[in-house]
Amino acid sequence: MSAAREYELDEQYEWARPPQGGWTADDLDRLPNLPPHTELIDGSLVLVSPQAAFHARVMKLLEFALETQAPDESEVLREMTVRLDDKNRIEPDVLVTQPYEFLDAHQTWYGPQQVLLAVEVVSPDSRERDRDVKPRKYARAGVPHFWRVEEEGGLPVVYVYELDPALNAYQTTGIYHSKLTLSVPFPIEIDLTGINPRRP
Predict the structure, then answer these.
(1) Strand runs (DSSP E) across the chain, as ranges?
(2) Which domain of life is it from (predicted)?
(3) Cα 80 → chain centroid
(4) Location of each CATH 3.90.1570.10 domain in the chain
């Protein structure tokens, strides 16, 4: 799709109407007025609701823990899109790259072969996508590790999955409350109760 692609704007909402066949991954970089963190799933734009405190705290906890424990040759990023194919470009809450897979300063997405781990923190409006749609798409694209984080009693519960290459699907390897301890994709230990805000 060329950069000269035309968009028809709905004057009432100043939104672009979808072209025949739906949007493409490249369109996310060119569409005007898109809200932050807009994703593309099966050629349709998906807009996200405002972030809850639980969601923000979990992302902060995981980003810090992964940043301090991931291999030096990997990169840990929040809210960076992954272009799975021409019709799917989704944004994990946190991702860890494969070793030595770094983007230049102006790149806006990773390819699935560059991603070692994708993490989704479930929100009420994203439950179906995070539990079903996104894991299937990550697995089919070959992302080797996936974590889904759910809220239970104000604390995170982490569901850990590993790709079974024979099935091209994820298999659950564990469900973690209070403490996450893993040896793959690298040794990691996270105190999941650490999302509690600091008290004076």
Answers:
(1) 9-10, 15-16, 39-41, 44-46, 76-78, 81-85, 88-90, 94-97, 109-110, 115-121, 145-152, 155-164, 169-177, 179-182, 188-191
(2) Bacteria
(3) 7
(4) 53-195
Token pair for residue 37?
A: 């963190």
Tokens standing for 87?
């019709």
Q: What contacts 20, CB < 8 A, 6 or more positions away?
A: none
- What is the signed CA dihedral for 28, 137, 127, 17, rounded to 10 degrees? 30
Phi/psi of residue 68, nearest 5 degrees: -85, -15
Structurally, at CATH architecture level, domain 53-195 sits in Alpha-Beta Complex (3.90)
Q: For the chain, how many residues are written?
A: 200
- Per-residue pLDDT tens digits for 153-187: 999 999 999 999 999 999 999 999 999 999 999 99
pLDDT band (50, 70, 90) for residue 115 = very high
- Pair of tokens at residue 22: 């739906």
pTM of the model as a whole: 0.89
Structure tokens at 48: 């996200």
